[in-house]
Design brief:
8 helices; mainly alpha; 52% helix; 174 residues
Length: 174
């Protein structure tokens, strides 16, 4: 059986010490709670792939272009023309990540909290556990996201409810 090499899905910047780019990346990391700059570079690579596809489709039929637009609209990147696809930015892609969607829907308090919920397998989409913060959430999946409480938290809540029912004398209030 022949193994195929898994290729990188991003490329590093050509100028590693460009101040303006570094500051912009640091701002994005802070805003979206990303783990490292590699996640930004992956978003850039994904957007550049979409741009490359759009450039090839400029001369193709309207039907093929509509297929691309429908695919991007399902992801949540609202586009209806080739120039709109070419105008997409890395922030548009990062906003569709599961980590960002959790924060926007107020299912997590902070970006690191959202990431922790995902990595600790506390997030389900359509009843299926998703543990990748970089998962791109489709529009139809957005309302099917749920955060599952841990068994320990459920147990602690039950104990707290029991304590509330019991007053200082040790007799249950009803």
């Amino acid at each position: 059986m022949a193994w195929t090499r898994k290729h990188k899905r991003y490329s590093r910047p050509k100028k590693p010490f460009e101040k303006q780019r570094i500051e912009e990346e640091n701002e994005i990391i802070k805003e979206y709670g990303l783990k490292n700059k590699r996640e930004i570079w992956k978003a850039e690579a994904a957007i550049s792939r979409l741009r490359r596809i759009a450039k090839k489709l400029i001369t193709s039929s309207q039907k093929e272009q509509e297929e691309l637009f429908n695919k991007l609209n399902k992801i949540g990147l609202k586009v209806s023309s080739i120039p709109e696809v070419l105008a997409l930015e890395k922030r548009d892609w990062i906003k569709r990540r599961l980590q960002s969607v959790l924060l926007r829907k107020k299912l997590a308090r902070t970006p690191p909290h959202a990431r922790q919920l995902i990595v600790h397998k506390r997030v389900k989409i359509k009843g299926r556990i998703v543990n990748q913060p970089s998962y791109i959430v489709r529009v139809d999946e957005e309302d099917k996201i749920e955060v599952v409480e841990s068994k320990k938290a459920v147990k602690n809540n039950a104990v707290a409810q029991e304590v509330k029912k019991t007053d200082l004398t040790g007799v249950k209030n009803e």
